[in-house]
Amino acid sequence: APACASSVLSGVITKAGVLAIIRVVFYQFGASFIEGTWVQIAWIILALTTVLTGSMLAYKEKVLKKRLAYSTVSQVSYILFGLACLNPISLVGALLHVVAHSLIKNVLFMSAGSMIMHGHVYKTNELDGIGSKMPKTLGCFTVASLGLIGIPPLLGFVSKWYLASGSLSSLDNALSWIGPAILLASALLTAGYLFSITVSAFFVKKESHAKEAGMFMIVPMAIACVLIFACGLFPQQLTSFINTIIQGLF
């Protein structure tokens, strides 16, 4: 799909499945019906397996947009893991990650589209030196990457903190610490497959014929980056709103 469509598909439309699971689990059956059963254990294991597998596939993928697509597989499973913990803290983290991932992936796919259109690059090993020609695009890409890795004070850090805290406080088995450990391993892989692009773009000296994208492409990415930073620095309003949503679920 074109990059503008990919950003919506990854950032927004993938959350339709999350909404369906919330409706079925919390409204149709109720969290207490599933909590402590084999269904919850299987759900958590499948979610964590997909978190790690998606990150590993993204790490080895060389096609830029396919790398971001594998990343989406992993990051949506972060949300499913938060839902599977079946407690208010992890649910806040899951819904926060819905917002964080939507903003971040919109930026990443839009910047990838800019690099494809104005730099004529499709694979990660073709991005050497492109940062000097497209500093604004790569700057937005870097901010979004740091947010997806979970670097404070960006929104991705806040959502992952709630996910890890919810796992540690709710599960009474080995999964309570295995979950945060896998999330940490996935974050390190995320740093490997995203931040390596920034490093090669800015610090590898190579002639590039790319040119910076126009303002109609830069401004939407910049606005989303500001929101990622602002919501991470001041998450109280967002978490308060999410808490009002989940009050009737437990």
Helix/strand class: mainly alpha
The H-and-E topology, N to C, reads as HHHHHHHHHHH
Unreliable residue runs: none
Mean pLDDT: 92
Summed up, the helix count is 11
Distance from N terminus to C terminus (CA atoms, Å) equals 40 Å
Beta-strand percentage range: under 5%
Radius of gyration, in angstroms, nearest whole number: 18 Å
- The share of residues in helices is over 70%
Structure characterization notes:
With 250 residues, the chain is mostly helical. The chain is 78% helix and 0% strand. The chain has 11 helices and no strands. α4 runs antiparallel to α5 (64-84). It is elongated.
Characteristics:
elongated; 11 helices; 78% helix; single chain; 250 residues; mainly alpha
Quick take:
By secondary structure, this protein is mainly α.
Give the SSE layout.
Layout: H1 3-13, H2 15-29, H3 31-34, H4 38-60, H5 64-84, H6 88-119, H7 135-149, H8 155-170, H9 175-203, H10 215-233, H11 236-246
